[in-house]
Amino acid sequence: MNESRGRKMRIILMYDIYNDENQKESANKFRKHIISLGYHMIQYSVYSKCIGSHTMYKYELNKVKSKLPNRANIRVLMVTEDQYKKIELLTGQKSYNKLISEEEKYIEI
């Protein structure tokens, strides 16, 4: 890929939704929404998505913001794909979703 056109980035989305009976439906809707946008679960309440370049970040962020739950703590972080690949797993094992998200391929048009 030509460096001037950008490089693959990774959005990491972390959230806590205050889960009382009134918020359970809202939490489920938000989770389904981010999955429908192509996010993969890394671990509980932490999701990631590959994007083609840093210029797509605001567009992707606006899609997430379109259905935010009322009572939640949601954070996002953008890192390069190379930085993301350097995450160290200290204990446990990679989830199936993690393995799938690492295998995502892009077709450059």
From TrEMBL:
The organism's place on the tree of life at top rank: Bacteria
Positions with a binding annotation for Mg(2+): D16
Family: Belongs to the CRISPR-associated endoribonuclease Cas2 protein family.
Molecular function terms, GO-annotated: hydrolase activity; metal ion binding; RNA endonuclease activity
Keywords in alphabetical order: Antiviral defense, Endonuclease, Hydrolase, Magnesium, Metal-binding, Nuclease
Role, per record: CRISPR (clustered regularly interspaced short palindromic repeat), is an adaptive immune system that provides protection against mobile genetic elements (viruses, transposable elements and conjugative plasmids). CRISPR clusters contain sequences complementary to antecedent mobile elements and target invading nucleic acids. CRISPR clusters are transcribed and processed into CRISPR RNA (crRNA). Functions as a ssRNA-specific endoribonuclease. Involved in the integration of spacer DNA into the CRISPR cassette.
Subunit composition and interactions: Homodimer, forms a heterotetramer with a Cas1 homodimer.
Enzyme Commission identifier(s): 3.1.-.-
Single GO biological process annotation from the record: maintenance of CRISPR repeat elements
The protein's name in its UniProt record: CRISPR-associated endoribonuclease Cas2
Required co-factors: Mg(2+)
InterPro entries, alphabetized: CRISPR_associated_Cas2, Virulence_VapD/CRISPR_Cas2
EC category: hydrolase
